[in-house]
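Long-time lurker. I teach an intro course on protein structure, and each term I like to show students one example going from raw sequence to a predicted 3D structure in token notation. This year I'd like something fresh instead of my usual example. Would anyone be willing to generate the tokens for the chain below so I can use it in lecture? Attribution to the forum is fine with me.
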Amino acid sequence: MNYQFTLKDKNAKGYRTFVWFLFCLHIAAGAFMVLTATDKNEQLAIYILFGFYVVITALYFIFRKRKKAFETFSLTLALLYANFWLTNVGVIAVIIFGAIFLFVNIVQNTKTRLLVTDKGVQYTRMFKTINYAWADVENMVSKDGLLTLDLKSNKLIQSEFESGVVEIDENEFNHFCKTKL
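-- Reply from a regular --
Happy to contribute to a lecture. Here you go:
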């Protein structure tokens, strides 16, 4: 029998913090460019960009309870950032920023998966997959949507299931795990 789970992402807060860090970094870079700019049109363009930042941030705080609000917010800011770097620095800066933004989005959208089979437990994360034989597992239990994997090496993996995942019979799963231990 096989059980496959998608575990809740613990890195969402880090991703959001990184997006806010980029936002503050761009505000600081824009402020520096305003202070060093001699051309009035260049200063006006940066002030207009700051205005867009304020409007988008205000809209985010108004609509932040909606399902995809943060993703829309970060994508909109990314487009403004790309315009900022293209206008003020050049294409190379846009390419570097785009690569960083895509990498962060790929990392944020990758789910942690756990596959429990007759052979053992397969724990798939972003950059690697770890296979644990049943001989390496001390205990494994699911209770109230929380999965606990206790290894003989004193490593403990504990995570909630992703919301919207098909419910399992916890008693059946726990019984399956006990028979394999």
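Some talking points for your students: Strands lie at 3-7, 112-116, 120-124, 129-133, 137-143, 146-151, 156-160. The longest strand covers residues 137-143.
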